[in-house]
Amino acid sequence: MTANIIWFIVLAAVALVGLRFVFKLFRPFGGIRRTVGGVLLALVSVVVGLVSILGLMGILTIYGSRGTPVQAVTVAGTAEQIARGEILANAMCSGCHTVSGELPLSGGEELFADIPIPLGKATPANLTPAGRIREWTDGELQRAIREGADPDGNILPVMSANTFRYMSQEDLDAIVAYLRAQPAVETDIPQDNYLSFVAMVMTPLGMMPIKDVPDFGPPPYVEPGATAEYGEYVVKVFDCAICHGDDLGGGPGGILPAGPSLAGAKVWTSDQFITAMRTGVTPAGLTLSEDMPWKDIGKLDDDALKAMLLYIQQVSPS
Ligand code: HEC
Ligand code: HEC
Question: What residues flank ligand 1, with Cβ below 6 Å?
Fold first, then answer.
């Protein structure tokens, strides 16, 4: 945070000094060189000034307090919760919070390294009882997962981009039960996450995938089973739409891969869909690329996958 405030001060000072010199340069009948120099300097100063203002807006957003009040929940940690939590954590968290893709969630590889813009660092934390979450209450942990805020209200930028806010209280309880039941794995992956000044400037422009958390309370419980209703829930929490578009009719691409329309999958049988998600091979005999997270999705149980297909058949355009 200090570095970003210094960036703001330096840029704002450069802009002010620049503008001051513009007024010194401009004189009536001062000659063409002074006029051209003055105009250029004015432009540069205004641009630097605007960047510093955007940066300040980003600083106020990012370092402002985040999250709704922490709920007083205590997760029982029954065997049933742990078992369900393990399936969910394996499918939804292991892609980032592990290096190998295998449980336990002992921390993953820095994610911003692959993005060609200097955004800072985002290393998925060690979520075993050896990580810092061992000191958090169940309510604080659930708020972190659902709203992307740590116990002090600091933003967890990548977590805040997730759609885990739509997870039912029951599923969130199951995940926390599993996190607590993992073996404590010590690691030496550094946890020096930060957001750069570039990220501060991008925030007010809406270019950082940081989502507001609507205070709608815990989303309703959806009974797990091979139903379109449960499929809608899984598709929403898993955020298939982020790549495949809002109605699963094809995504726009950009920083994320452009997922195709899922209309083609409507004619697949449940078995074909399950095979595609578990092996990456579609009924047409094509192998899905790594851009499609089929390896993670395939870790869900059969009912969840059948449910997804039922939902795709319902919404995806023909
Ligand atoms: C897209 C990658 C990604 C996925 C998927 C993901 N996380 Fe994270 N998570 C991160 C990163 C990166 C951080 C570090 C803070 C940040 O940048 O948001 C983090 C931080 C956290 C933290 C804060 C821990 C700490 O010590 O600060 C918790 C709790 C957490 N994640 C839980 C989960 C759970 C539970 C799941 C699955 C339901 C999950 N995450 C899925 C990337 C991810
Ligand atoms: C990170 C982006 C991303 C996410 C998230 C994602 N997909 Fe995909 N998906 C892709 C891409 C890219 C392809 C095309 C892969 C290829 O052709 O090799 C694809 C292909 C598919 C296909 C094959 C379509 C066909 O006609 O061959 C299905 C089915 C599918 N995705 C379903 C899903 C479901 C269901 C979810 C959510 C649970 C999901 N995807 C989440 C990127 C994504």
Answer: 89, 92-93, 95-97, 111, 122-125, 127, 131-133, 141, 144-145, 150, 156-159, 164, 175, 193
